[in-house]
Amino acid sequence: MVTSRSANHYSLLADIGGTNTRVALCEGTSLVADSVRRFRNAEYGSLEEVLAAYMASEGNVDCLGACVAAAGPVRDSVATMTNLDWTIDSETVAKATGAETVSILNDLQAQGHALGHLEADALTTILPGKAAGPNAAQLVVGVGTGFNAAPVWRTHAGRFVAPSECGHITLPVRSEEDLVLSAFVEKAHGFPGVEDLLSGRGLERIYAFHATENNSETRKDAASIMTSATARDDDVALRSVETFCRKLGDVIGDLALVHLPFGGIFLIGGVGRAMVPFMGEFGFADAFRDKGRFAEFQDTFAVTAISDDYAALIGCANHLHDRMNEN
């Protein structure tokens, strides 16, 4: 049954990841619960096709505004997906939705705009940190199909979430094993980037690395690795998860020193969430603190995992609301 919606009352939100796209309508900053849909990107050739299918299911409602969060760099309101052959621009979104106001954000920017608007049961403390003032900087870190992070600042002009593509910086090397692992990872793209290790396919590369070191030709996808690690039935899977947690601590610890997020670090993304039960056992905190004479300083930063799968949509709704009411 096609839903009938009032014109120029709702806004459209879309969160485009490397694997799935989530689309919803909102009233003000509130998601319309029965409007949330998930689309597998592999089944569509573009966001325009996804939006056409979605709009048809919603009676082709004429939207007041639209905000799209894309997993890739955004320049001049044009997003280029990092792990998907899609390009997204505001003109196409406006045409597909009828929206008068359109915003195109990086997906981590959308997550940053969600901070402070999530339910308490969607937040899990990984490291406690220390209390900070209400305007302290924050950092969102996404670990899923890809890797990225974005700082969140509260300014006199409102919230500002800076775009970033830090998943493509050089992977840190702290040991002889790290050096060998980095060389192994470098074979993927000719450069050992953080995302090549700290992502779903990165976990698969870590598994391949440890399997090769054990003279094994066994290979597993990310979901199977996590299943085996949870069941404790594969030593290579456990070793891979341990390596992942340690390197994640390394990288997030470095980002904490770059951005000084005294208001907390927030971990999002399916792969990041899957690692939370293993972080205590496999040295995430130790790697996060392993910064020489700044080790004690690292205790300042709280690390929290976000479990709300629609956090980016909530962020889009709040960003769009602020933009439409800024004057």
Automatic annotation (TrEMBL):
InterPro entries named among the record's database cross-references: ATPase_NBD (IPR043129), Bacterial_glucokinase (IPR050201), Glucokinase (IPR003836)
Keywords attached to this entry: Kinase, Transferase
A GO molecular-function annotation: D-glucose binding
GO BP terms, alphabetized: glycolytic process
A GO term from the CC aspect: cytosol
Keyword ATP-binding: no
Pfam families noted in UniProt: Glucokinase
Keyword Cytoplasm: no
Family: Belongs to the bacterial glucokinase family.
Protein name in the entry: Glucokinase
Source organism of this protein record: Halocynthiibacter halioticoli
